[in-house]
Amino acid sequence: MKHLLSAGDLSRDEANLILDTAEEMRSLADRPIKKLPALRGRTVVNLFFEDSTRTRISFEAAAKRLSADVINFSAKGSSVSKGESLKDTALTLQAMGADGVVCRHGSSGAPHLLAKSGWMTGSVVNAGDGTHEHPTQALLDAFTMRRHLGSLDGRRITIVGDVLHSRVARSNVLLLATLGAEVTVVAPPTLLPVDMTSWPCATSYDLDGALAKSDAVMMLRVQRERMNDAFFPSAREYTRRYGLDKYRMAQLPDDAIVLHPGPMNRGMEISAEVADSTRSVIVEQVTNGVAIRMAVLYLLLSGSNEEETTA
Ligand code: CP
Description:
alpha/beta; five-stranded parallel sheet; four-stranded parallel sheet; 9 strands; amino acid binding; Asp_carbamoyltransf; Aspartate carbamoyltransferase
């Protein structure tokens, strides 16, 4: 495995290897010494052209716990504001040495361009590209679900909300289908992509109809910054039909869990009571994100990459 660009590129065995490796990494958190020497001498560049709290910091924590050197690049405050291109930025960082590049970009496909262009020679991890994919988020979500539900084979997972703008939804649907889950996407018609029929999941406009048969429900952030009023006429109407409050949550089976990738719009797609409830695993998702990113960096960077297959 050389790069991690899409959740859809992972076979079931590859996905399970990452999840099983993350389980070992997760157990480190309970030990007095949380660091491993596995990536000593390797350099990981965090290349972030879009804002991030969870993904950027957890990749940094993950790399440091594996003893890698970390270079953090943020477009804000860099020469990108003077017009420097992705290519020249990449060449500049490569000149300083990079074994792995973690890239978040507002344009769909930017990490794929980095991986294929040769501007950087290291492994590329997609940390979220436009509205396209966010594979490590899907991995940490599957990891969190697996810890609560056991095998995801046949489990019913409902993903709710602004699917149109969500790279998290696409990566989750692809990965969960690979792991054998039955996924239903619930959204208003204006917030579903036109190519929905090619996604390996069912689609519904009716949240109340889906909740009683869900083992896990994942609420998506409403991405107001990416839409205009034609997509989203009324916040109150959206919350009434697609928000998860304590009354709706009561329809879930007893053992069902509630996820959200963050950042949350409390009071819009999810109420504060639900976000802070005992069913919510939202904070745990963040903890698990470090273990997943440790597993991904370890598997990509610790061995030889002579067999340069793209995962
Ligand atoms: N879930 C997620 O990608 O969060 P950040 O934007 O804070 O990284």
